[in-house]
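_Full entry_
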Amino acid sequence: MERKHTRVINIGGVLIGGNNPIAIQSMTNTRTENVDATVEQIAGLEAAGCEIIRCAVPTMEAVQAIGEIKKRVHIPVVADIHFDYRLAIAAMENGVDKIRINPGNIGSLDRIKAVVDVAKERNIPIRVGVNSGSLEKNLVEKYGGVTAEGLVESALDKVRIIEDMDYDNLVISIKSSNVMMCVKAHELISAKTDYPLHVGITESGTVLTGSIKSAVGLGLILGQGIGDTIRVSLTGDPVEEIKAAKTILKTLGIRQSGIEIVSCPTCGRTSIDLIGLAEKVEKLAAGYEELNLKLAVMGCVVNGPGEAKEADLGIAGGKGEGVLIKKGEIIRRMPEAELLSALKYELDNWKEK
């Protein structure tokens, strides 16, 4: 897949844009002021594969906390700022790697300039974010409602404000909970600017519905080579955002690391707890992120080998019997209860190949 050309931005050592990998982001849902809880959550997110983390900074207490948090985590920290320009300045002075602002709600040009001046002094990237829920009234009137065109115009207006202050270390995000509007907005803005784009479907919903909406939206956007960093926004445990993001990137062929699991949907022939087995395999496979292979979990000993022929490795079972499959060929038969341990043995030894 050919990526759209964008300039490279350095976020605390993580490069986005250009030909750099699409970075996975999330946002903490702890109170930032609670340093221990926030650090603990970030550690879990990092272990799951998060590469950039954003924290809400609504108070000066949160500003002080984020400086301590930064010292105790290993991935870049982004301060999410609304309304109070002083919070943005203080967050940068406390060592954050990037700030996220909407210049439209920061206040006067003097206040925006005060923020930009500190960012310029410290070479800290600014993510300029606009959201369909807060589109300016004049643009709503101009386009007859909230539209992709209005979102793009709003974002580029904010970018020009900062560019006029002689600063261009910027990332752009334009978000909407309307999937197709979001897709169109990204298509439009990608043709108008070479700033890297932070892509996501905002307020997409719970883990199930939000993952589906994000997969559709991000799939359509990333599939066109648009996007340099992503967040799957879910109402739930932020670790689920990372799982969904990794799966989306893997499905699109953008990231190849980690085990891809395929499993049959079950039917009347299934005579094994395939759902439970597949869930156990998924948990097992999560510990082999360094492997790049396809793993099949099938519910029928008769058809399983044929259906798993495109997988590198597979298991199938039913009526007390299990089989281990490599490249579509049965290499071992065993009691059904031994399937998981046999699979683990193969994965452990796959590392040595």
